[in-house]
Amino acid sequence: MKLEAVELRRVALPLVSPFRTSFGTETTHDCVLVHVVTDGAEGWAECVAMERPAYSSEYADGACDVLRRWLVPAAQALSDAGELTAEGFAPAVEWVKGHRMAKAALETALLDAQLRIEGRSIGERLGSVKDRVPTGVSVGIMDSVPALLDAVGAYLDAGYLRIKLKIEPGWDVEPVRAVRERFGDILLQVDANTAYGRGDADHLAQLDAFDLLLIEQPLEEEDVPGHALLAQRITTPVCLDESIVSAAAARDAIESGACEIVNIKPGRVGGYLESVRIHDVCVELGKAVWCGGMLETGVGRAPNLALAALPGFTLPGDTSATKRYYHQDITREFFIEDGHVAIPTGPGIGVEPDPDVLRSVTVSSQWLRS
Ligand code: OSB
Ligand code: MG
């Protein structure tokens, strides 16, 4: 492939309802779309870095900067040498420390273009074995327990097979108890986004009474050993999100007893190719994985759905239908049917942004040309 140009496009889409986590409240989804133009096809990807570095150290303006200064020039150099492939990109930028969300976005856009040239879907490329995936929903922190029960009830009515509650100190045991009491034997899990400390083990052990599938990332990103200690004090299985930045990190975390389950988010780990390697490590070690989400538009959701169709993804993902996020998405809509969402089957990521909708949500655009 020859790289002709790269566009970094900032978009902002209003969310259907505010999404509150322990690290803040999102009312719009503000992200960077990476759009590559090659001699054979165009490719699109969504960079999941949020506006503020509150989920992880990456943030949207920082991602644009590292893309502009180093990642796009590295892809350009590969192209000039006649060696540009999606697979060759990560090795060429291995020297860049961190910035996995920015790397993932450019790699995915290149992969989309490459697969379109080959006429193959990303599901085929990654190893999807299903044409639809069971789907859960991530429910934000609410102002009151009655408001939470209304929200959960509506998602269950829509067919979601698993409910994930965001928790933080002051919003944990009571909302979990209320949801369990009201809705009975549903698949239920919680996500703390690092809101607790090592001293909270006794408090978190109170959640053991509610038969949760898992507790996601209770402690800080760097505290993998703390998760191993916590896992010995609670019976709820520990799942890591923020801490798992690579296949090597997944292996270490599992082997040290820090987690029983891994949330795979392609952006967090540097892309879909590394995501497959994490999946393979977890399958080898007999641990379940599921596909997380970052409130992606259809551009990011489509390849996540394809990933979630790999055989080791045995738990429902945060791969919800379009309506859970947006009144109007930039791609075609994804629907929930029978608790499942169909994976896209067209070439590449299988969806394209609608030019008119895209224009209406664009905040800025910068073209980088050789
Ligand atoms: O921790 O899983 C998370 C959204 C933004 C940032 C972090 C997280 C989330 C979610 C939403 O839980 C998942 C989704 O439906 O996209
Ligand atoms: Mg999480």
List keywords for this structure.
Enolase-like, domain 1; TIM Barrel; 2 domains; 36% helix; binds 2-succinylbenzoate; binds magnesium ion
Task: Summarize, please.
The chain has 370 residues and is an alpha/beta fold. It has 13 helices and 13 strands.
What does this structure look like?
The chain folds into two domains: about 5-120 and about 355-370, Enolase-like, N-terminal domain (Enolase-like, domain 1); about 125-340, Enolase-like C-terminal domain (TIM Barrel). The protein starts with a strand and ends with a strand. It contains 13 helices and 13 strands. The protein is an alpha/beta fold and about 375 residues long. It has helices spanning about 60-80, 85-90, 100-120, 120-125, 145-160, 175-185, 200-205, 225-230, 245-255, 265-270, 270-285, 300-310, 355-360, and strands at about 5-20, 25-40, 40-45, 130-135, 135-140, 160-165, 185-190, 215, 240, 260-265, 290, 340, 360-370. The strands form three sheets. The chain has a seven-stranded parallel β-sheet. The chain is globular and about 60 Å long. β8 (about 215), α8 (about 225-230) and β9 form a beta-alpha-beta unit. The structure holds 2-succinylbenzoate and magnesium ion (MG). 2-succinylbenzoate (OSB) binds near residues 191, 193, 294 and 318. Magnesium ion binds near residues 216, 217, 241, 263 and 292.
